[in-house]
Write a structure and sequence with these properties.
The structure holds 2 protein chains of 2 kinds. By secondary structure, chain A is of the alpha/beta class. Helix content of chain A is 36%, strand content 20%. The radius of gyration of chain B is 23 Å and the shape is globular. Classes of the chains: A alpha/beta, B alpha/beta.
């Protein structure tokens, strides 16, 4: 075990993946010698050469298209989109190509092994073009898998699982935790399965669900609620697509209440999808309406970021409202 | 001195523009209209066997297009796209490749597909989206693909194959394969952002791709002069720092020779090459289109005289490699063969219901299994409303 921040854990995962399989290739804007603007690919070019870790021109659709082609040939491209806010020029390549490659060819061709790594989310004073959480757009696209880690150890295991996954994966990295989140990480190769949520704390009165950077936030809220005697079950969803319905259903059947938190805007956010499924599966077990604590339906603000974010206090209030309904 | 701008600086002291049409790329022609080789042109070294395979691929596609457009008009298939007028461009380029070079096409390159060996039955199964279709009946007619013959499955969105070809060829290079990737697209698709992305990526990362632009004058109804302002498409290659060549797309010997040269260069230097074929889309864009709304019969007639098959046929006859009567009989026989194959394919069952969810992922996720079983239950309730699947479900 070693103490690593999330960037170091991601870098370590990429290093191990490249050492293990010479088909793994990392590229993106400033990813080469510089090691990425956040340094996630630091030293990889030095170690594995320019052919396997390189800069690309400023063209997200080009990066995505290039990655699709490489993966279709049988390699495992790990393509970085510098900020999730800039993934939209690649939307067509990802939604119409990546996601449908296997299906449309009748399984003759596929882009398994392709991973798009991209930093998402707020908390870095980035305004609306360096803070967005676009997971819900992609969750509406069959054929993709979507993963969001909460800490360094999770980031490493989930990233390695993404690279070895036979399906293409979008790996959203909570950039505000890149250096802030530090933990013990095994230096060995290990994978954490995609599509499985993790119950981080068991409780009886209310299930609190989030993913990625919001896990820290909801943990704070849960601690506050516990201090007031409310027993909370805390779940990290970890994968948005496919999402672990079973784990959430089991929990809500026990607690009878659900609070979902995400940083993306409320309307059309993934919490709505979860709420719809849970009300169907757990209707007779529910003691109160499912609550969503999300961003406002506005572009991500700058000066008033604190007001916008679904913070621990808003979540704490929602937990109380859910229990006292 | 360092060159941070990656630009050669030659200085002037009085302001002057470089014209937007300063670069006019000449068009390679080898085969004259009468089937002879132009004086000064170099006749490519083609064996009789290869030449006949090329010719037969062209005539096959010509007859297939004619029959299948008719089948669409009869309501037997939903949609069709012809290659009429561009048979030489697609067959001639494919013939210059090695069998393991990847082909990434747009949707009008059935000539290349046929040259690679896609069988009549395979064409039919795709067009009728039956259970023998390699694509499992999931895409509209003409979206062919075959892993066995290195022909990437067609995707409708325009130009998406362009950056993919760059990535595919780069991966081939990394794997040490002595292969190129050819990427076909139209002059209309060259307006897509993916064109810029793909050519630039391929040039910067030294990927051996042959970007083959079929400039056929029209993107559905939009003429090329409303599509771009530059001099054709080939000159753009120079902007990306890659070699470019323009050929007469109705001249199969020119297309063959240019593609052969481009392939050799791309492999030897790990560089992409841009080829532009100048031809005319003689047919409609698709079976859903009617060109009489945007171009004149006179214009079409003028180009109809520039028939790529007729020109190549004359060359073959001149060589004594083709027997006029036997050829005509063979084409007549082909019409019947196609009709027979059509009748077989249209009777083959559609794919089973399990193929609704297969291949979305390598293994269906639990939610898909759940949705399928729910759907099956519903179909059992109303079998008459779902005749394709109701009778075949266990």
């Amino acid at each position: 075990m070693a103490k690593m921040n999330m960037l170091q854990a991601i870098n370590n995962a990429l290093d191990l993946a490249m050492a293990k399989d010479d088909g793994v290739v990392c590229f993106g804007e400033d990813v080469g010698h510089f090691g990425g603007v956040f340094r996630a690919t630091s030293k990889l070019q030095e170690k594995y050469g320019k052919a396997r870790c390189f800069n690309t021109p400023l063209t997200e659709q080009g990066i995505a298209g290039f990655a699709n082609g490489m993966a279709a040939q049988g390699m495992k491209p790990v393509a970085e989109i510098q900020f999730a806010d800039y993934i939209f020029p690649a939307f067509d390549q990802i939604v119409n190509e990546t996601a449908k490659f296997r299906y449309r060819s009748g399984d003759q061709f596929n882009v398994g092994g392709l991973v798009f790594r991209t930093p998402y989310g707020g908390g870095i004073a980035g305004g609306h073009y360096h803070s967005q959480s676009p997971e819900a757009y992609f969750a509406h696209t069959p054929g993709l898998k979507i993963v969001v880690p909460r800490d360094p150890a999770q980031a490493k295991g989930l990233l390695l699982a993404s690279i070895s996954c036979p399906d293409p994966v979008i790996f959203f990295e909570p950039k505000k935790l890149y250096r802030a989140s530090v933990g013990e990480v095994s230096e060995e190769y290990y994978e954490i399965p995609i599509g499985k949520a993790e119950v981080m704390q068991t409780g009886t009165q209310v299930t609190v669900l989030a993913w990625g950077a919001q896990m820290e936030t909801v943990q704070k809220a849960v601690d506050m609620a516990q201090a007031e005697g409310i027993s909370c079950e805390l779940i990290d969803l970890r994968s948005i697509l496919p999402w672990d319905v079973e784990t959430v259903v089991t929990s809500v059947k026990k607690t009878g209440r659900l609070v979902i938190n995400h940083e993306a805007p409320l309307t059309g956010g993934f919490a709505g999808e979860i709420a719809a499924t849970i009300q169907k599966e757990c209707f007779l077990h529910l003691e109160s309406p499912i609550l969503r604590v999300c961003g406002l339906d506005i572009p991500y603000p700058l000066a008033l970021e604190k007001e916008y974010v679904p913070d621990h206090l808003k979540t704490f209030e929602a937990i109380k409202a859910s229990v006292n309904f | 001195m360092t060159n941070p701008n990656n630009a050669t600086i030659s200085t002037i002291h009085l302001a002057e523009f470089t014209s937007g049409h300063a670069l006019q790329i000449p068009t390679l022609r080898v085969l004259a209209d009468d089937g002879t080789v132009f004086p000064g042109a170099k006749e490519p070294e083609l064996s009789k066997e290869t030449a006949l395979r090329m010719y037969q691929s062209m005539t096959f596609i010509r007859v297939l297009d004619e029959r299948m457009l008719a089948a669409q008009r009869q309501g037997r298939i939903s949609f069709y796209m012809q290659c009429l007028g561009e048979e030489a461009a697609t067959v001639g380029s494919a013939a210059a490749l090695h069998e393991e070079d990847m082909i990434m096409a747009q949707y009008r390159e059935q000539g290349a597909l046929r040259y690679r060996g896609f069988s009549l039955e395979q064409f039919m199964n795709q067009l009728f989206s039956n259970e023998k279709d390699l694509g499992k009946g999931r895409q509209m007619p003409v979206h062919y693909g075959s892993r066995d013959i290195h022909y990437m499955t067609i995707s409708s969105p325009l130009g998406t194959q362009i950056p993919q070809a760059a990535g595919y060829a780069y991966a081939q290079k990394l794997r040490g394969k002595a292969n190129v990737t050819i990427c076909y697209f139209g002059e209309g698709a060259a307006s897509e952002g993916d064109f810029h992305a793909g050519l630039n990526m391929a040039a910067v990362h030294k990927a051996p791709v042959l970007f083959f632009c079929r400039n056929n004058g029209y993107a559905i109804s939009t003429p090329a002069n409303e599509q771009f302002k530059g001099d054709g498409i080939a000159c753009r290659g120079v902007g990306y720092g890659m070699k470019a060549i323009r050929v007469d797309g109705a001249d199969i010997l020119a297309v063959y020779q240019a593609t052969l040269m481009a392939r050799d260069y791309a492999l030897a230097n790990n560089e992409p090459v841009l080829l532009e074929s100048i031809a005319y889309r003689l047919g409609a864009h698709s079976s859903s289109d009617d060109p009489s709304g945007y171009r004149s019969k006179e214009e079409e007639e003028l180009w109809r005289k520039n028939d790529p098959i007729a020109r190549f046929r004359l060359w073959l006859l001149n060589k004594g490699w083709l027997d006029d009567a036997a050829d005509k009989a063979q084409i007549e026989g082909l019409r019947q063969e196609i009709l027979d194959a059509l009748k077989v394919a249209e009777k083959i069952a559609k794919p089973g219901i399990e193929h609704l969810i297969s291949d979305v992922y390598a293994e269906p996720i639990p939610e898909l299994e759940r949705q399928l079983s729910e759907l099956k239950e519903h179909i059992r309730k109303y079998p008459e409303a779902y005749p394709i699947t109701a009778g075949r479900m266990l």
